[in-house]
Amino acid sequence: MSAQDVDRRSDLARWISGVHAFPADRGTLLERAQSQSAPEGVLSALRSLPDRTFDNVEDVAHELGIGGNEQHD
């Protein structure tokens, strides 16, 4: 994982993590980020997620292609 990927993942985690944050679906993650006034870049990334349940931040990051792999189809 590149330094840029680490920064992106850390920024994402800042807005969607928390006690009992996961599992969560796209809508729940987006609501959580919006309620914390996340920047538009984070909100846009969350909107691009497929409508499914995510197990943790790593699962979300992987789906977004953070960490060296491209996005899932």
Task: Tell me roughly what share of residues is in helical segments.
Answer: 40-55%
- Radius of gyration of CA atoms, rounded to a whole number: 11 Å
Structural class: mainly alpha
Estimate the strand proportion: 5-15%
Number of domains: 1
Distance between the termini: 21 Å
Shape: globular
Within the largest sheet, what's the order of strands?
A: 1-2
SSE ordering: HEHHEH
Determine the mean pLDDT: 88
Count of extended strands: 2
Total DSSP helices: 4
What does this structure look like?
- The protein has a two-stranded antiparallel sheet.
- It has four helices and two strands, in the order H-E-H-H-E-H.
- The protein has one domain (3-63).
- The chain is mostly helical and 73 residues long.
- It is globular.
Structure summarized in a few sentences:
With 73 residues, the chain is mainly α. It is built from four helices and two strands. 22% of the residues are buried.
Write the layout of secondary structure elements.
Layout: H1 3-16, E1 24-25, H2 26-35, H3 40-47, E2 53-54, H4 57-63
Antiparallel strand pairs: 1-2
Helix pairs in contact: 2-3
What brief labels describe this structure?
mainly alpha, 73 residues, 4 helices
